[in-house]
Fold:
Amino acid sequence: MQSPSALATAAMQRDGLALCALAVLVAGVFGDEFSVLRSPQSVVFRDGSWPIPGERIPDVAALSMGFSIEEDLSWPGLAVGDLFHRPRATVLVTVKGVDKLMLPKNGISYPIENAVPFSLDSVANAIHTLFSEETPVVLQLAPSEERVYMVGKANSVFEDLSVTLRQLRNRLFQDNSILSSLPLNSLSRNNEVDLLFLSELQVLHDISSLLSRHKHLAKDHSPDLYSLELAGLEEIGKRYGEDSQQFKDASQILVDSLQKFADEMYNLYGGNAVVEVVTVKTFNTPFVRKTRSILQTSPAKTDNPFNLGYPYNYNYAVIFNIILWIMIGLALAVIVISYNLWNMDPGYDSIIYRMTNQKIRMD
Structure:
């Protein structure tokens, strides 16, 4: 017969094996990761393996910056931080072609559930709407697709930033490029795929370098937003294979560059910036940006057979209460004024009649 201590030890071992099996299962099902490299004390990310839905990543960025979202987020990874001290910048780097990078252990990582394409357009619109007079820095860039979006001071700060593939290639072969200090190992300067990967690392270096020349922008009261999408590692995996030495060397170079970029951006904002990395093997559905052609005809109006009401905005209750109480206040004011005017004694309450009466007596 086993002793109670032995039974307890066996039970703890079974629980530990169960937790390990659950962790392996979660890692297998949710291979993609959402990692936080640097964050200020006012933004609290909890340690845990809670999966985050891919479509809610923009909501996490919005909440960490202190903005409200339309739908509540029931994700325990983000705790309620200091409401009066929000970060001055949020940097989100999306790496395509790999589900996990060997990032430093001081960061926090969460598995991604349902990795669908996303964008930070809603966060950028909120910043542009609330801080339009202060002209914050908003930069959204995908070098491999030549897609760039700048708002506010970003147009002047990053006017020399290379955004097209030809500009990126020419930038790599300048004297002060990263090729002079970066160990290429098995990568080649003569391969277009390798040059695409290296040009994206050059963009990371140039962003922090150009921002360091305008440090006053990192000290203003308007929050800044940086959203970068890197696809060079994915192209290297397609060209050489994920088991090749080129892919392994590129992954290690990318990890070192991301950590250096995170430290530089964090220090430029005085330790008040959130730097996040999303690693996605492949998106479940392609990301299609809505565009409109000049030849597009207006869609036909669809009938509403059930006579359903249209969905109202979440600000409806606020606007309704403002209008309601203003109308009630005006109605009460009209009633009170009318009552006082109706019961006014012209001989005592009106200065006009009083002055006229004295003038008649004097005459």
Remarks:
- The two ends are 125 Å apart (CA to CA).
- The CA atoms of residues 75 and 290 lie 29 Å apart.
- The first strand starts at residue 33 and ends at 38.
